[in-house]
Write a structure and sequence with these properties.
about 325 residues; alpha/beta; TIM Barrel; seven-stranded parallel beta sheet; 15 helices; globular; binds coproporphyrinogen III
Length: about 325
């Protein structure tokens, strides 16, 4: 598996490639399968159909890795918080004001469905395709649990972090333990490596970034590595800015996802030597295609030549991406 070779520090060329949200609405076959499931959450919790949508982009484009089809908000749902996705509006949860009533045993069926999908996937994927298990980073998941929705800068979470830090820390402790158990179960079910999506890391000031992002991520990495000698974990502290180097150093993560705004050359300088990067092509270029995309892809490839690197976007694919641009992206990378 090229992806695991890179995560073990080998400079594989051309680099392995996968795309965040590679299973999604830009693919007509995804939309058809989602319609069959009824809605997005039912799709996540249906092991047969979730396996099918994970495999669709692998069959079509031959990515080097498949990512479990699920969502970072399935964990709060398994803990007992209500979750719905309003059509075209994103996730909605009742904003949390106490931890009572939340527990890992709340909805074991949800857990079991996800693990069944992981097991189906490892059995169905070609041996050269790595299976990535994932969870949201505790801070990012807490943002949705406390604010009940995304779309802004999570104002309730931001206030609570100052006004009721004990509550926020208790929630993060609970999420950290739940995330360790959830990711361990994915490893046991067959995930080859893991990714932690800390998509909203960048909304916190430095001191809170250390307590709410770095400390929980470090605990998760340490716990999983203590139990699974060779497990590799990719962190994605989106919009971490100048905190990126500290994040990589302090968490012990094996590779780090770069958002769109980060200059990869500066990231190389800010992080420990031999840090492995993933990303950071602007998803808008994948929508636009043509010379703008080709130029940026070649420039990104040139800047990582000779390094262990995982080709990816700086954030997820948007539903308006034409499929032929994804096919062209793969050609450019593979003709290198
Ligand atoms: O292909 C993959 O990348 C794997 C599956 C995956 C999804 N979400 C599927 C999904 C993964 C890894 C995620 C992670 C996720 N979910 C994150 C972290 C990464 C990021 O994007 O920052 C976050 C913040 C969420 C929460 C979430 N889920 C939001 C805010 C939304 C609504 C936005 C949107 O695109 O509609 C979702 C919905 C979602 N998750 C979809 C998919 C394919 C679209 C649902 C649909 O089919 O209507």
């Amino acid at each position: 598996m090229k992806l695991l070779q890179v995560l073990n520090g080998k400079a594989v060329w051309p680099p392995p490639v996968w795309l965040m949200r590679q299973a999604g609405r830009y693919l007509p076959e995804y939309k058809a399968t989602r319609a069959k499931a009824g809605d997005f959450i039912s799709l996540c919790l249906n092991p047969v159909l979730a396996t099918e949508v994970t495999l669709q982009p692998i069959r079509k484009f031959g990515f080097d890795a498949a990512i479990l089809f699920s969502d970072i908000l399935i964990l709060p749902m398994a803990l007992g918080q209500e979750l719905r996705f309003a059509e075209g509006e994103g996730p909605r949860l009742p904003p949390l004001s106490s931890l009572s009533g939340l527990s890992l045993e709340k909805a074991p069926g949800i857990y079991a469905a996800v693990m069944q999908t992981v097991a189906n996937l490892r059995a169905a994927l070609p041996p050269e395709t790595a299976l990535i298990g994932f969870a949201g980073g505790p801070a990012t998941v807490a943002c949705y649990m406390l604010d009940g929705q995304g779309g802004g800068d999570f104002p309730r979470t931001r206030r609570l972090a100052y006004e009721n830090p004990g509550f926020v820390t208790d929630l993060l402790d609970m999420l950290t333990e739940a995330t360790i158990a959830y990711l361990q179960a994915q490893v046991d079910a067959g995930a080859d490596c893991l990714m932690l999506f800390e998509s909203w890391a960048g909304i916190f000031p430095a001191a809170q970034f250390r307590n709410l992002v770095i400390a929980p991520n470090r605990r998760i990495v340490a716990a999983l590595k203590a139990r699974n000698q060779d497990i590799k974990i990719i962190g994605f502290p989106r919009l971490a800015g100048l905190m990126l180097g500290e994040y990589v150093r302090e968490t012990g993560i094996d590779a780090v996802g770069l958002d769109t705004v980060t200059d990869i050359t500066q990231a190389i300088q800010a992080c420990p030597p031999n840090t492995i990067f993933q990303g950071n092509l602007d998803p808008l270029l994948l929508r636009l295609g043509g010379p703008a995309m080709e130029h940026a892809v070649r420039r990104l490839l040139a800047s990582v030549q000779g390094r262990p690197h995982i080709f990816n976007l700086g954030h997820g694919i948007t539903p308006d991406v034409p499929e032929q641009n994804v096919a062209r992206l793969m050609e450019i990378i593979r003709e290198n």
